[in-house]
TrEMBL record:
Species per Swiss-Prot/TrEMBL record: Aquimarina amphilecti
NCBIfam families: Xnuc_lig_assoc
Record-given protein name: Putative mRNA 3-end processing factor
Any one GO molecular function term: RNA endonuclease activity
InterPro entries in UniProt: MBL, RibonucZ/Hydroxyglut_hydro, Xnuc_lig_assoc
């Protein structure tokens, strides 16, 4: 009798055949367990959604009126004799890993995650398992994150310097997750914090959960002189748009793990890059794998082949699987999310 894995990679997504449920499926299904609110993991069209309760307002904001059931971290729920539970992923607010247990076998699907505590999302929690499905968006030794307190010190210093030169600071970050992390640690004593509509709308969904500094929405009525010396937090898609023309003179910066490479900054015509990611760096990935105690590791989206090869050299049973997840490439908004006020 052939062995059938507890979780399989299918054309619709990661599937548990015993429970007849999908994890972060990318095509419409009857029942989906969702790790977090980013568009590549929470798609429209499923008949039933299960997710952490703090993720519910986020995905409803993005997907509309959906049939969704919220769970607590660590709460066990059983579907067709398969035990499921959600555990903190530390990626963004409301993000989870999914633990799946059946007949003594335990699998964990991370979704997206990071092990550094960002002070906003519930910190990552290692979950013991036999098989670990891990993203490896930044699965190269070249990726090594600076502690975020140092990064935010540099961001606030950059803003202060721009203010002293009479310039507006434009800081680019994805509207869900990255933008809120930036807003949380900007120093309002330097000046006023303006926000793009996509970021203001998403932040308002989350504001009841997190203590953010006061922000001011950019509107058609906002005057050019209002921006001088202040900071504007906007999605990457706003860069180069007509929306930012009245903010001249301005200086742009992007906060992303890809800012590790100078070429990425040049290609995007960004003045300044701050290396800040909501994903693990190389050491973080290796630490996470080790702490699970897993012997089998499946790598998805990112530098999968390189990371799996290294794990095999360490003695793991490691392989790769293709998914439609994009990691930090998901920071490129869809047209709907990136609409700007002209």
């Amino acid at each position: 009798m052939s062995y059938r894995p507890l979780l399989e990679f299918t054309e619709k997504g990661i599937y548990c055949d015993v429970a007849k449920v999908y994890l972060d499926p990318w095509k419409p299904v009857d029942k989906a367990i969702i790790t977090h609110g980013h568009a590549d993991h929470s798609r429209w069209g499923h008949k039933q959604y299960i997710t952490h309760h703090t993720n519910i307002p986020i995905i409803k904001h993005r997907l509309g009126d959906i049939n969704v059931n919220g769970k607590e971290y660590g709460e066990t729920f059983i579907i067709n004799n398969v035990k499921f539970s959600l555990h903190p992923a530390g990626h963004i607010i409301g993000s989870s890993q999914i633990r799946v247990e059946h007949k003594g076998k335990v699998w964990v699907f991370t979704g997206d995650y990071k092990i550094e505590n960002d002070g906003i999302s519930v910190p990552y929690e290692p979950v013991k398992c036999h098989t670990f499905i891990t993203e490896c968006t930044f699965g190269l030794p070249a990726f090594k994150w600076t502690p975020q307190n140092e990064v935010f010190r540099d961001i606030n210093q950059w803003w202060a310097e721009n203010k002293s030169e009479g310039k507006t600071s434009i800081l680019l970050g994805y509207s869900l997750g990255k933008a809120q992390r930036l807003l949380k640690y900007l120093n309002p004593e330097i000046g006023r914090i303006y926000t793009h509509g996509a970021i203001e709308n998403m932040t308002n969904v989350i504001r009841s959960m997190i203590d953010f500094p006061k922000t001011t929405l950019v509107t058609r009525e906002t005057k050019k002189e209002d921006f001088i010396g202040n900071i504007v937090v906007a999605p990457p898609s706003a860069h180069g748009s007509t929306w930012i023309r009245k903010m001249v003179p301005y200086v742009t910066a992007s906060a992303s793990g890809w800012m590790t490479f100078r070429g990425a900054r040049r290609r995007r015509a960004i003045d300044k890059g701050f290396v800040l990611s909501d994903h693990c760096d190389w050491d973080g990935l290796l630490t996470a794998v080790k702490e699970t105690g897993a012997t089998k590791v499946i790598s998805t989206h990112g530098y999968t082949e390189i990371f799996s090869r290294y794990l095999r050299e360490l003695g793991y049973d490691a392989r790769t699987e293709k998914t439609q997840y994009e990691g930090e490439l998901a920071e490129i908004e869809t047209k709907k999310e990136s609409e700007v006020i002209e």
